[in-house]
Amino acid sequence: MDLVSSFLSKKNINNEEDIKFENYIKGEAKLNSEKQYIIESSCCFDGNKDNFKRHYDENKILEIHLNNMLFEQYLSFDNVKKLSLIINDNVKFDKLFINNCNELYLKFNGRVEVIDKININNCKFKQISINNHIDGNIEFQKCEFNDFNLSGLCDVVIKGDFKFNFCEVKETANFMNFKFKNKAYFKMSKFKDNVYFNNSHFYDYANFHECEFEKTACFYGVKFEKVPNFSQVIFKGNLNVVNANLNFDFENLKEKINQECEEFNKDKKEENKKSLDKFANDFRDSFRTFKNALIKDNNSLDASNFHKYELYCKEIELKQNWDKKGKNVENMTDLEKNISRIRDFVDFLLLGFYRKLCDHHTDFLRVFNNLILLIALYVLFIFIGGFEFNLEKKSKDLDKLSNIFSFFTEAKQKILNFSFIQQYYGYILIIFCIICLIFIIVTLYKILKDIQLDFIKNIIFKDGLKSLWNLCAYVFALLVILLYINIFIPKSQNNLTILSNIGIFFAFCIFYLWIVYLNSLFFRYILIVFSYIVTIFAMGKNIFILNPLIGKLVYDKISFDNPLFIHLTFAYTILMALVLFSLQKTARKNSIVPS
Questions:
Q1: Are residues 12 and 155 in the same domain?
Q2: Structural domain range at position 390
Q3: Residues contacting 451, CB < 8 A, separation 6+
């Protein structure tokens, strides 16, 4: 039995003189036992204290093995020049401190439970490895590493915060297959050699602010659940972010930038605060860095996703610039700065439109749905307005196909002539509708069974009512503008005709933009389903409903004389051109064809 184990004969140890191990440290101490020992008081190894130095040789490595130990307060190593700490199974800390060690060997061979944190400051590591789970916070501050190996035979999980700030790794750093359950910080650290985060999972915020990677930085297959911060990062070597999954949207990014700004400016004087647009620019810079690295590797498809996030940040930045310039009264007297402000506002609106329309040319299904919504809205306006356009000239090819269509018509009639069908036609239709309704209910139940009722109320009522309120406000604003325009119309002109033409043009644009910007997913899905039905029936009746102006060019006999219909169709044509442009660009980006 070794010296330390011989004095740990009780389960509970509370004698402070014994806890300091002053009389038992002679180069090597192993705390091994089949039972768990509870250390109630603080346990401190201090290289600066004389009573410890009498029993401690700085030229030898202080080697300590921990197994089946419970430290209810803290275990601390201060100014121990050479230390080898091996933590095996069933060890629990309230706190562990290691400070100012010139030669540190640290191994986590078993599962470690930390109530508060493990804090390691200003140490030079010769070796470190983590081969299991750490249930708590672990911090490395201003440390130097020969290498950094955090991957053993199994996945490594850290359930608390992981901080790796102001550190330097001289050789390979290995964070592969790592699961960061909480926040992970790597701020202002330097990696002199290759660093690998392959297939790691960041469940919470990841901060790589001002990190420096001198060689390969590999983030292959990494999954970010929240917006990471790579602002002002320096990649001197290769960057691999293939198959990296960034699981967030515009609202998540906006929330994270606001949070970063608030945390940075908290308790700071006014002159030292940093504006929100600067933070948005920092995040944009981080996404731009990833995008450029992927473009350099001829990976334009993945680069387009990072370009999307870059445009998210630019939109937030432009919005803040608009607000900031608006508050500055001096800028209002400077024509050039006012023009710049208006330009920023227009760019902000344009970025917002393409984000909602096609997610900056990365979401083909969204832009296709918006195309169907546009066609259905146009058909609805034609139906409500009672507009008509006639096709007087028939095609001979269509006449030749009439026999084929008559065959289908006769076949349908024969089926309907069956006595069973005639007798129970209504019941069959009802049964079919019930089956479809059951299918819809089951599908919705599968989707919503894990969602709380409050959330359903929000998406149906809160978001829906807010969207309807916005639509009413836009329509009211249009009416006010039309009344204002009416003042300047000469009496010799028919003011009702002019206002009607302007009104229907902008009303159509307002309704479509409202649908595109609709935040309520519930109402948007209903509108999409309805739009597909309307569009299919409208195309079946007359294919030129897709664009009567093109139909006019193909068949010169098509006539429509109503000026309201002409203005409506012109607005529809402009929006159709924008949507089709986005559709083809998105399709090219999502295919093998280079854009």
A1: yes
A2: 364-405+454-589
A3: none
Distance, CA of 543 to CA of 368 (rounded, Å): 18
Q: Give the tens place of pLDDT for each residue, 518-529.
A: 887 778 888 898
| Alpha-carbon Rg for the chain in angstroms | 35
Determine contact, residues 214/236, Cβ cutoff 8 Å: yes
210 and 354 housed in the same domain? no
Bridge partners, residue 178, by sequence = 156
Instruction: Tell me, yes or no, whether 348 and 371 share the same domain.
Output: no
Same domain, residue pair 355 and 372: no
Confidence category of residue 154, pLDDT binned at 50, 70, 90: low
Least confident of 26-35, 75-84, 180-189, 227-236: 26-35
pLDDT tens digits, residue range 269-312? 877 788 888 888 888 888 888 888 778 777 777 788 888 999 99
In a domain, 440, yes or no: no
Backbone angles phi, psi at 6, to 5 degrees: -65, -30
- If DSSP states are collapsed to H, E and C, what string results for 52-87? HHCCCCCCCCEEEEECCEEEEEEEEEECCCEEEEEE
Give me the number of domains the chain comprises.
Answer: 3
The residue assigned the tokens 């731009």 is 288
The last residue of a domain, from among 250, 266, 292: 250
Q: At residue 362, what are phi and psi to the nearest 5 degrees? A: -125, -10
My answer on whether 387 and 467 are in the same domain is yes
57 and 90 together in one domain:
yes
Buried/exposed code over 330-342 (b: 16+ C-beta within 10 A; e: otherwise): eeeeeeeeeeebe
What is the identity of the amino acid at 557? K
- On whether the CB atoms of residues 475 and 510 are closer than 8 A, the answer is yes
Confidence at residue 506, expressed as pLDDT on a 0 to 100 scale? 93
Q: Measured between alpha carbons, how far is 275 from 279 in angstroms, rounded to an integer?
A: 7
State whether 313 and 371 are in the same domain.
no
Q: H helices within 225-272, ranges in order? A: 250-265
Residue 28 shares a structural domain with residue 115: yes
Query: What is the value of pTM for the model shown?
Result: 0.71
Burial class (CB in 10 A: 0-12, 13-18, 19+), 319: buried
Separate counts of helices (H) and strands (E) for the chain: 17, 30
